[in-house]
Structures are given as structure tokens and as C-alpha cells.
Design goal:
eight-stranded mixed beta sheet; Helix Hairpins; alpha+beta; BirA Bifunctional Protein, domain 2; three-stranded antiparallel beta sheet; 2 domains
């Protein structure tokens, strides 16, 4: 989230960044400055009347019965109260405009089309393969919970549940071994937490809300995990701060129809292992590159086709300046499935949440925050069973055998 002083100082840079994003509300900028000018004038006027009131109050102290002075003091108080009410309205208007402005894309972000930057893929599929929902039925791995919760919810069964747990634990262990500290987090968060990480107001309609308790079901572990460090002040020597968590995630957006929303492709509730890093402004891209390499290593260990895309400005999330998407290939559907996004949000979130670091000279700066999936479980589950299927069994990937405690899922 930007301040009006930042936008004023770097106006051309901000406008060019928003144009690159194809941001449709550029008129916000001029309206923002108009409101700021009006606010400034009201503040000046308020200070004028406060000075007048202070001066007249001094004379009233020595002449309590002077009705003219008392009447003037009363008038000044009313004017100050009116100006305070106007200033409150103006501040809210300015705030509501500022929260609509997304982060500015990095120079590395492509303009209008996602760019492929890495691909591990060989066309080695000789026979037509079953898709994952056919395999789920054939091997009794999962079913859909329409009778319990409606569409967009899933039930893992027996070996399917065990395989899902194996994936979660493997991803967590890889993160922990890479220096990420594990957190077990609440699945319900307040509005401040949602706002702090940038899902509010942009993704408000996609979230489940408990009206009675004024709490939101988390759309991703990023929300509570970043908010663990709300109002933290780090010493620069203690950065980067690295954390990981496994949670279920809840999103209304899953309700699409057809093949795009079939099977495990899109769910209202799904499991995901998340990583975040908090670093200084000078080292956030080092963290970004490290996180990209980390997710790459995890996906490589499964020995299935995957690719990495540099997401274009028009597809970039509100908080991010640079995002790489990781997709695995689903041979049963003949399509790519996104299983991770690694994003650098620079100081957009920390500005809202108040996460700072202390430099050696004692000055305080806002940290940069980064987040990534490592990994989204349902689509990874789908791609793995499709890639490792045989007519009579599903082979367990080598790296998961010790977790699954078997090397095959049999009919």
C-alpha cells in the first residue's frame, strides 16, 4: 500500500507502472491529489481557528464575564469541530482510494503475455492415460463431498488419504530442512489480517465470512503466517526470517464448471503447504531467487514434467511486483496445472502490517515480504497419480516411498 507522499514524489513512475498493469482507474491519482489538497487546506484552516481559540481563551481567563469573547470562543470551537468532521471524511475517502492501487510491477515482468522461463517436459506418453478422477474411482482414492458440503469439496479415502498426508509431510520436511520454521496456524482470521496481506478489498468476494464472529476463513496460509510478524522490528542481522505452514485453504472462486473445474482442479477447500520470507529491501530478490530454486528442487524430486512462467503485468496479483508460477503437466487431461506461485511483494504488505527492520546506523525501514506455495496438494496429487499410473497399480514416487510406507497403490 502506497502513501500519497510516495505517489506524489514518484507520480510518473506510478502511472507508468499502473499502465503496464492495465489498471483501469488511473483517474484515481488526480482525484487523490485533489482530496489531499482539500485536506491540506482544511488542516491549515483548523490550525488558524485553534490559534484564535487559544488566544481568546487566554483573555477569557482574566475576563470571565465578557460575553462577546465567550461567544467568539464558542464559534471557533464549532468551526474546529466541523473541520475535524470534514477531515475525517476526507481521510476515509483518501484511504479508500489508496487501497485500490496495486503494487508496481518489476522491470522483469512481461507486459501482456506470460513468458516461459523453464520447462522440464518430454513427450513420452505412448498410450492414452486416465485422468485423475477416473483413477480416483478405479483405485478408490477419493470421492466428492456433494452429499455433505455441495460441489467443490473432496473426500480422500484410505490410500488416497495416506498419499495426501505423505505429500504434505514431504513438502513440510523439505521446507524445514531448508531453514523454514514451521508454524501451526488458525484457519480463521480477522479483517485486519486479511487487509494487511492485501486480500481485502481485492479478494473479499472470494472469501468465506462468518458474520456472527466477524472472521474470515483463510484463502491461504500466507495471511496468518505474515501476520504472525505484525508490528515486528527485526535487526538486519536476523534477516531473512523464513517460515512455513500447512493449512487448509478456503475459496469461493472454485465454483467453475466444465473440465476447468472438474476433479481436483478447483476446490472450495484444499490443502497447501506455504512458505514466506521477510527480508530487507536490498536482499528481497535474493530471497525470491532462493524460493524459486527451492520450489524447483521439490518439483524436480518428483520426476514429473513441470514448467515455470514469469507472470505478465496484466495477470499479476495486487500485492506482487514479480510472480513466477509453477505448473505440472497432467497427461490424463493433456493440460498444465498450477501448483505454486512465488511472489515478491516488496514493502506493500509490511507497510500495512508494520513490519520493519533496523539498519546498523539505527534507522528503521519497512521489510519486504515474499510468499510461495510449496506446494498446492490437490493438483500435485492429480498430476502424480496420472504420471505414475499403470493398468494394475499406481507407482509411488521414489521420494515418497518412506512416507507412504509402500511403493505401489494396488487395485
Amino acid at each position: 500500500m502506497f502513501t500519497t507522499s510516495f505517489i506524489n514524489k514518484y507520480k510518473n513512475q506510478v502511472i507508468l507502472g499502473l499502465i503496464k498493469r492495465n489498471f483501469s482507474k488511473l483517474n484515481i491519482i488526480d482525484y487523490l491529489f485533489k482530496l489531499e489538497k482539500e485536506k491540506f487546506n482544511k488542516i491549515v484552516l483548523k490550525k488558524y481557528f485553534m490559534a484564535k481559540l487559544k488566544k481568546i481563551s487566554f483573555f477569557i481567563r482574566y475576563n470571565l464575564k465578557n460575553s462577546l469573547l465567550i461567544k467568539k470562543a464558542t464559534l471557533y470551537k464549532k468551526k474546529i469541530q466541523l473541520l475535524e468532521a470534514i477531515l475525517s471524511v476526507l481521510s476515509k475517502k483518501i484511504f479508500n482510494l489508496l487501497i485500490q492501487i496495486p503494487n508496481l510491477p518489476s522491470k522483469k515482468v512481461p507486459l501482456s503475455k506470460d513468458i516461459l522461463i523453464y520447462q522440464k517436459f518430454q513427450l513420452a506418453y505412448k498410450n492414452k492415460l486416465l485422468n485423475h478422477w477416473e483413477l480416483g474411482k478405479k483405485f478408490n482414492l477419493f470421492n466428492f463431498a456433494a452429499q455433505i458440503s455441495g460441489s467443490g469439496f473432496n473426500i480422500y479415502i484410505d490410500k488416497g488419504a495416506k498419499f495426501q498426508r505423505s505429500l504434505i509431510q514431504y513438502c513440510l520436511d523439505k521446507n524445514i530442512n531448508a531453514g523454514y520454521i514451521e508454524y501451526v496456524l488458525p484457519f480463521l482470521v480477522n479483517k485486519n489480517s486479511i487487509f494487511g496481506t492485501g486480500q481485502f478489498p481485492d479478494k473479499k468476494k472470494q472469501m468465506y465470512f462468518l458474520e456472527k464472529d466477524k472472521l474470515y476463513l483463510i484463502p491461504t496460509a500466507e495471511v496468518p503466517l505474515i501476520n504472525v510478524f505484525r508490528r515486528s522490528l527485526f535487526n538486519i542481522k536476523d534477516l531473512p526470517c523464513k517460515a512455513t505452514s500447512f493449512t487448509s485453504c478456503f475459496r469461493r472462486e472454485a465454483g467453475s464448471y466444465g473440465l476447468q473445474g472438474k476433479g481436483l482442479n478447483r476446490l472450495h477447500q484444499f490443502d497447501k503447504v506455504e512458505i514466506i520470507e521477510i527480508n530487507s529491501d536490498q536482499n528481497s530478490y535474493k530471497s525470491f531467487n532462493y524460493m524459486v530454486l527451492h520450489v524447483t528442487n521439490i518439483l524436480s524430486s518428483f520426476n514429473i514434467p513441470f514448467r515455470i512462467l514469469n507472470i505478465s503485468a496484466k495477470n499479476l496479483g495486487v500485492t506482487s511486483v514479480l510472480t513466477y508460477d509453477f505448473e505440472v503437466f497432467s497427461p490424463g487431461q493433456n493440460k498444465w496445472l498450477e501448483v505454486s506461485s512465488v511472489s515478491n511483494c516488496t514493502n506493500f504488505q509490511s507497510n500495512r502490517i508494520g513490519i520493519k527492520f533496523l539498519k546498523n546506523d539505527g534507522t528503521k525501514y519497512f521489510c519486504h515480504t515474499l510468499n510461495g506455495s510449496s506446494l498446492a496438494i490437490p493438483r500435485l496429487f492429480a498430476a502424480l497419480i496420472e504420471n505414475y499410473q499403470f493398468s494394475e497399480y499406481i507407482q509411488i514416487p521414489k521420494v515418497l516411498i518412506n512416507y507412504f510406507m509402500d511403493n505401489k497403490i494396488l487395485l
